[in-house]
Structure formats: C-alpha cells, structure tokens
Design brief:
alpha+beta, Elongation Factor Tu (Ef-tu), domain 3, 14 strands, six-stranded antiparallel β-barrel
C-alpha cells in the first residue's frame, strides 16, 4: 500500500479535508488506526504532538449512518501516517470489512493544532533571541518537547546563560513578534527525503514541524528556566491568544 500524502506542510491552516479511507487496521499492540489517502493530520515527531480530531466515515450503502470516530493520536510508521481511533470493537469490525475505499471527512482539533504551531515557532525564536542577547552562538537544544500547555527547549549544558539573560531574550522575543515578521518552512531534498527548514528573517533551523506564518500570531510569551544536573530547560508558555493571520 502506498504512503499517505501529507498536506500539512504546504497548507498548515487547512482544518478539514474530504479524503479516502484506504485501510482500517490494528497495530501490534491491538490499537485501531486508519490510513487515509491524504491527510491534514500532523504525526507526532520532532517534539510536536500528533494531531487529534474527528473522522466522519460515510457508509457504502444507501441510508447507512455516518460514523463519527475520534482521532486520539497521529503517528508515523515508515511512509504511513496512522490515525489512531477511539472506536468500539463492533463498529471497527463493521467498518474494516473488505470493501472499496470509503469516503470520509477528516477534521482537526484546530485549537490544539494552532496552539502547537504558535508554541513551536516561539521555541525556535527564544533560542535565536538568546543567541542575540548573548552575542554568540549556543548549542541547539537536544530536545524540544511540546505539550497541550507549552513547550521546553532542553539543553545539555549549564551556566551558558542565566535568568537575567533569559528575561532579556524573552523581552526581545515579544518585541520581535509584535513587529510582524514572516515565518516560512521549506523542503530541502539535498539534505535527504523529508528534510525541511524553518526560517524567519536571517535565522534557519532544521525542523519538519508545522508553524504559523507570521510572528504576530504567536502572541505574548512568558518564560522560565530550570536546571537539573547537566541540563538547562527553558520553559515557554503563551499568555494570550493571538489573531490568526493564515
């Protein structure tokens, strides 16, 4: 079976899609998932959460009830994008019977996705602003996990910067975001299949995630710092919603 066509990089603001369900299956742990011909759901990776949402599957018989299935996680496996479902055994068995591909409507949990897009670019920019504040480069974070609430840049060093430097960098970030700067992402096949860059002004960071198109959409950012053993963690939260410009 061919892989899923991802639409989220070229159009990260696409919230809903009429699509085809190619397969309903269970993974090795017995968890049910759907494979779609194309998708707006971003799979977990690079620290970003997998998208959640709803899949409405149309029946193949006249008068058959539309099935509403909750997509509780999205993960990538090789060239597949698996949409994990909350579905009872009876409904799963009915829908997974051998038949022609079924038509469906896939709808994102846009609140989650948009928050992830805003936080993701804020995480890149706070790193850029720390370097600008310090007047030198610092090692990139080894991990940048995002959550429903915010995100962290986790650095494998201590004493490269202090709370005062982080405060200055955060002030600079908020000023920069409010001034309206374009954010873009670009594929770079010279670096390998699926490799992408996040870019804003003169900054470029390798990243395959999804992002807002303008810094104004990030809104006001607050930050804090945690140090544990040999790790410095910069924690970012968004204190207010911002206007969607996409």
């Amino acid at each position: 079976m061919s892989g899923t066509l991802p639409l989220f990089h070229e159009n990260p603001y696409l919230k809903q899609l009429e699509c085809r369900v190619d397969l309903l299956e269970r993974d090795d742990a017995g968890l049910p998932f759907a494979l779609l011909g194309e998708t707006v759901f971003y799979p977990q990776g690079g620290g970003q959460l997998g998208d959640r949402g709803v899949l409405h599957i149309q029946g193949t018989k006249a008068g058959e009830t539309l099935k509403r299935l909750e997509v509780i996680a999205t993960k990538k496996r090789d060239d597949q994008i698996r949409h994990y479902l909350k579905v009872d055994d009876e409904t799963f068995a009915l829908l997974s019977e051998p038949k022609n591909a079924q038509q469906a409507t896939a709808t994102l949990d846009w609140s989650l996705r948009y928050h992830q897009m805003r936080v993701h670019s804020a995480m890149h920019l706070i790193h850029c602003m720390l370097e600008q504040t310090l007047g030198r480069s610092i090692q990139h974070p080894v991990r940048s996990p995002l959550s429903d609430d915010g995100g962290e840049n986790q650095y494998e060093f201590v004493e490269e910067f202090d709370e005062d430097s982080l405060r200055q960098a955060t002030d600079a970030l908020n000023e920069f975001c409010s001034a309206s700067h374009e954010i873009r992402t670009e594929a770079d096949t010279s670096q390998g299949q699926g490799f992408r860059w996040w870019k804003c002004e003169n900054w470029s960071i390798p990243c395959g995630g999804v992002h807002v198109r303008n810094t104004q959409e990030i809104g006001l950012v607050t930050s804090s710092m945690k140090i544990k053993k040999n790790t410095t963690r910069v924690v970012i939260t968004l204190s207010a919603e911002a206007e969607e410009l996409g």
